[in-house]
């Protein structure tokens, strides 16, 4: 069965601190893809990144970076120099290649950046 | 930039009433999805739709639920007789094709409140 675990339910840091959100996934599929979504208080899901299972290169986009480690089935997300606007719930998701290619989401991590 | 549009943004309905949630996917997309997020919980897959039929559904998607693409542009989710536990945010998503190089685009969600 496919599963995504985000062990950190809530994280609270002071602005400008770096923060890492953990994501561990389980799947028997050899081909899959991984996502991070941001859900601000307004409720919509904002796409942040997609990474396929063939590509273990880390990615950096501005203050955001992602570390994909296939050996540990982890896809962690780091925000550098956090800002108050980063406050949101962040979801990691596993995208399946088989069947309908649905997304399996983790429970989410509520990130609060305090000024 | 093309986007998935959902209406209404918020719907309040009485228990036992039928409700229809509407979505307009991106125009050249072929695969359509509904997801549900009960307040404070993770986003859960409900159903996928391709080629005018359901391709996969979850255990949540029981006989009270149905989906339809009535006119080639709208994609609807109907709940026949709403229960209190149907209160949730419902997200529509669409994708252009299968494969590791595509992602599902989400609408902004419809918050359904059953009273």
Task: Briefly summarize what is shown.
The complex is a heterodimer of chains A (115) and B (115). Chain A is built from no helices and twelve strands.
Can you put this structure into words, describing what you see?
- The complex is a heterodimer of chains A (about 120) and B (about 120).
- With about 120 residues, chain A is an all-beta fold.
- Chain A has no helices and twelve strands.
- In chain A, strands 2, 5, 6, 10, 11 and 12 form a six-stranded mixed sheet that branches. A four-stranded antiparallel sheet of chain A has the order 3-9-8-7, with no helix packed on it.
- The radius of gyration of chain A is 14 Å and the shape is globular.
- Helix content of chain B is about 0%, strand content about 50%.
- Chain B contains no helices and eleven strands.
- In chain B, the strands form two sheets. In chain B, strands 2, 4, 5, 6, 9, 10 and 11 form a seven-stranded mixed sheet that branches. A four-stranded antiparallel sheet of chain B has the order 1-3-8-7, with no helix packed on it.
- Classes of the chains: A mainly beta (about 120), B mainly beta (about 120).
- The interface of A and B includes residues 37 and 43 of A.
């Amino acid at each position: 069965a496919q599963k995504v675990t985000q062990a950190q339910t809530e994280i609270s840091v002071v602005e400008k601190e770096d923060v890492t959100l953990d994501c561990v996934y389980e799947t028997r599929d050899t081909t899959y893809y991984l996502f991070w979504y941001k859900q601000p208080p307004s409720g919509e899901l904002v796409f942040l990144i997609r990474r396929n299972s063939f590509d273990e290169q880390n990615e950096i986009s501005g203050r955001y970076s992602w570390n994909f480690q296939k050996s540990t089935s982890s896809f962690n997300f780091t925000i550098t120099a956090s800002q108050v606007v980063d406050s949101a719930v962040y979801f990691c998701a596993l995208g399946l290649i088989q069947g309908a290619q649905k997304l399996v989401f983790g429970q989410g991590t509520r990130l609060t950046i305090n000024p | 930039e093309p986007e998935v549009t959902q209406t209404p943004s918020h719907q309040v309905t009485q228990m036992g009433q039928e409700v229809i949630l509407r979505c307009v996917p991106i125009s050249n997309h072929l695969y359509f999805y509904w997801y549900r997020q009960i307040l404070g919980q993770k986003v859960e897959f409900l159903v996928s739709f391709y080629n005018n039929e359901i391709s996969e559904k979850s255990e949540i998607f029981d006989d009270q639920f149905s989906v339809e693409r009535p006119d080639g542009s709208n994609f609807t989710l109907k709940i026949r007789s709403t229960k209190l536990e149907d209160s949730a945010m419902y997200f529509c998503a669409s994708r252009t094709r299968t494969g590791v190089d595509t992602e599902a685009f989400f609408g902004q969600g419809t918050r359904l409140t059953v009273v």
